[in-house]
Every structure is written in C-alpha cells, then in structure tokens.
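Appendix C reproduces, verbatim, an entry submitted by the partner laboratory led by Prof. M.T., so that reviewers can inspect both the input and the predicted structure.
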Amino acid sequence: MALQIDAQNLGRRYGRQWIFRQLSHAFQPGTATAILGPNGAGKSTLLSILAGQLLPTEGAVTYSLAGKTLLVTEIPRYLAYCAPYLELPEDFTLLELLAFHTRLKPLRPGVSAAGLVELMYLQKARHQSVRTFSSGMKQRLKLGLALYAAAPLLLLDEPTTNLDAQGAAWYLEHVARVRDAGRLVIVSSNVPAEYAFCEAQVLITDFQR
C-alpha cells in the first residue's frame, strides 16, 4: 500500500506565538524524510499534525492511499508511531503486550510475535512486566512495535532516545530492513546518525516567521 501525505501551507500557533508557518511539502511513498531543527523548534508538533493527532492552525494536510483520498480519521489504521512521550501499558508482560498490540496493529508478513521478541533481543524478558524494563529495553520495544507493524506510514520521533551505541546501531539495521517501495518514513531528529538514510529533509526553522 502506497500512502502519500501533502502538507499545504501548514502553520501552528500556541497563543500568539507561531511555531511555524507556510510549510508545504509532499511526502512521497517509498521515501524517507527527516524533520530537522533544534530542540523546541516544533518538530514533534509537525509530526503530530502529520499523524492526524493535532490540527494545524492554518493550512491543510491531505492523505491518499493508492490514489484514493483518505479522511484524517482513517489514518491511525495505516500508521506506526514511535516517540519518547508515547507510553507503554506497563502492567502487561512482554508477551501479553504483544498479544494485545498485534490484535490492533498486525505485524508485517513473515514476522510473528515470537520472532519479534528475538529481533528485539528480549527473549529473556518474555514473561517480565514491562514496568521492570530498563529505559533502553522500553525504547527498543517501542521501536520494534513500530518498525515491524504492517503499516505504510512510519513516524519516528527521536528514535534513539535512551539507546546506547549498540542500541542505536540496532535501530539503523532494522529501519533499513523494513523500508520498501511503498512505505513512507518520516523521522523527527536533531541527531545526524538517526536520519542519515533519509533522502529528503525539511528544516523547520525555514518556516518560522
């Protein structure tokens, strides 16, 4: 499934302060785009707007799947999202969480829940409560759920947060594995290693007025 996002003259304001204005970009299926800018510049805000979770103050976002226009209310079924501020249900064990999550968001063809546990190197934690996981384990879990979801839109906000060098290398290996001709990947970051694979960039400071 090939999903495209067209941002047209987007602007977002908090109170009287504009975060960005007149931001336009076509996010094409099969591409990876980095949203860049310093901390507090509005990268996560833009990502939330593209995800349909936040309304722009001005402008519009349109979505199309295989040439058919989608309503913003339809986007969650096509979206996989990983961000530091998204919480995991910590009362579940890892296996319980995977069983729950994959009922709502199936995994990519050929990937089972057991196989994902191995890909995330979390075999020894299968029966542990997620609340007992280290911050790095939780981030690897969030990434694994997003990367290996059967979703044509993948949004990653600061994806190596809480990961050490080995974990960051794991992220780069697996994001490369899950890219395909139809998947649209958007990465919000100010860490070059996180978005080195991206073909396009949107510098959010170019749209601050």
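The chain has one domain: 3-207. Additional entries are available on request from the coordinating office.
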